[in-house]
Amino acid sequence: MIEILCLVLVGIALLSDVLLLIFWLTNFKEDTDELNELPEIDILVAARNEEANIGRCLDSLIALDYPKNKTNIWVGDDDSTDRTWSIIERYQKEYAQVHGVQIKERVTKGNGKANVLAQLARLGAAEWLFVTDADIAVPKQWAKSMLGAAIANNLALVTGTSLVEGPNFISRFQCIEWLYATSMLKVVSDLGIQATTMGNNMAIRRVVYDEVGGYENIPFSVTEDLELFRQVKKRHETRNLFSANVLNMSSAQTSFSELIVQRKRWMRGAFQLPFPMLLILIVQAVFFPAAIALLIVNPVVGGIAWLTKWLTKYGFQRSAARKLRIKLSVVDSFIMDWVSVIFSMASLMYYLWPGKIKWKGRTY
Fold first, then answer.
1. Residue 361 contacts residue 48 (beta carbons within 8 Å)
2. What's the angle, vertex CA 349, arms to CA 346 and CA 350, rounded to 5?
3. What is the bridge-based pairing of β-strands 157-159 and 238-240?
4. C-alpha angle with apex 108: 105 to 113, nearest 5 degrees?
């Protein structure tokens, strides 16, 4: 009985990966990068204790292939206790398009980042608002490619793709996890299901931002980007984009303890996702304990099932990596699949453990 139940659960998980791969290969929507006119843009960056990353972020934004006189980079220092503000000051003295702001007032019900972004958004008047994080580096074509897709398809909000960079084990683990997750989002988006956005890689029309009331009028959430997205999708169309031109690279969490705290925050938001996306995540989560149980009860069948599932998943990941023009190690993919089992279980237990979420030195 246990073996049959495990086989059913493993089969459902395998089917979900097969369907992801089929839809990826047959229903992938390419988006144009072409723009006839270049509107003025406001780029919003919230920074708290980011002395190690903020320079890299600003360097990439300054290097954008976009007219300097139409680019406004608004950087809000959220009461940092390190050198973040002094670095921001140095950049705004050197570059006219960089504007640093020390955030002291609280205007939102939300977390610190939402409070910073709400105040930065008030300072500009550009037609489009871009949002990214202080630990992100953007590609040169980021602004043009995001706008090209949004304007061509009359979209209210577009979300790019983000991955983690770094040579060590934990960085590669995060990169593969993000690759799988963002690829799933692209599949769901191309099926017409508006699932979620990423607060480190987003562009929204100002008129739409104002229409939903901005960050200051959304309900409290530890995932402020998802809450804003939920308000937008009630009235407008959005899309997730997937190409090298909209691929932002994030600095990695440096330890599994930091990573598990980050995941607890994300899991709060995950339960607010549309049912189809949530169902995929649940099916993937159930696969691991079912596969382990099957390996114990019937090692041969369990081994074949696990290998088949991984090969299908790897095919999906490899196809996605090609779209982004990045390399994916087959060894890393195989090893990280096993690591993901342990980490997913630990994340779930930590999520269920009573206690508030601690992030950036604050408790929510």
1. yes
2. 85
3. parallel
4. 80
**pTM for this one?**
0.90
Domain ranges in the chain with CATH number 3.90.550.10: 41-160+198-252
Query: Taking Cα atoms as reference points, which of 86, 92, 84 lies closest to residue 62?
Result: 92
Length of the chain: 364
Task: Report the Cα 81 to chain-centroid distance in Å.
Answer: 26
**CATH class of the domain at 41-160+198-252:** alpha beta
Q: Using CB atoms within 10 Å of the CB of residue 76, give its burial: 0 to 12 exposed, 13 to 18 middle, 19+ buried.
A: buried
Are 242 and 182 in contact, with CB atoms under 8 Å apart?
yes
d(CA 11, CA 301): 12
For residues 237 and 218, give the distance between their C-alpha atoms in angstroms, rounded to a whole number. Answer: 19
Task: Give the pLDDT confidence score for residue 259 in this predicted structure.
Answer: 72
pLDDT in tens, 324-336: 999 999 999 999 8
CB burial of residue 315 (10 Å; 0-12, 13-18, 19+): middle
Task: Express each pLDDT in 121-175 by its tens digit.
Answer: 999 999 999 999 999 999 999 999 999 999 999 999 999 999 999 888 888 988 9
